[in-house]
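Render this sequence as a predicted structure.
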Amino acid sequence: MVCIQESPAFRHGEYVNVINTQDDEMAEFEPDLLNEQIKWLENDLATTDKKWKVVLMHRDILNYGRDAKPLGDEISFSRHGEVYMPIFDKYDVDAVLTAHLHTYRRRALIRDFAQNEQGTLYILTGVAGNVRYPSLWHKNPLDEYVPPQPETNNYLVLEADENSLTFNCYLPDNTQIDTFTLTK
C-alpha cells in the first residue's frame, strides 16, 4: 500500500503514470498492449510540464535469484525493466514504484542500467496481505535497503513538498524501517 501526503505547495506539481505490466497475460485480448503503452508513455512524459514524475507499475525492473540459486554479483533486468528503464532515463522520471514480488527493496539510483547518482529511484513497495515468500528472494547488487527477514507487512508513505519527495516505509506498528528523499 502506498499513501501520498502532499503539502499545499506541492499541489499540481506531481505527475503520476500507471503502467499495466500484465501485457503477456493480456495478449489474447489486447495483442499490441505493450507497444501502445510505450507510445502513450513516451508522449505523456514528453508533454508534461510537471516538476516531479512518478511511475507505478506492478512488475519489477529486476530479476532476482530464487531459493538456492542466488544471482551473486550478477545484475539481471526483467523484460519490463529492459523495455521501460530507457524511457524513464530519457524523460528523467524521478521514481518508479513496483510490486509483484511481495518484498520491500529500495535500490540505488539507476540510470543506463547501472548505479548512478543522477538516476531514477526504484522501490519495490513491499509486503501486504497473506502471501509470503520467506527466504525466497536473495539480495540483488543494486539493492541499497532490504528489511530484516523474514518480512512482515509494511506500508509506504510518500510525502511531497515543492522541493522534495520523501519515501518512508513503515511496519504495521508504525515503526519506520526505511526512508529516502529526492530533492530538486
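Summary. The helical segments are 33-47, 79-90. DSSP finds two helices and twelve strands in the chain.
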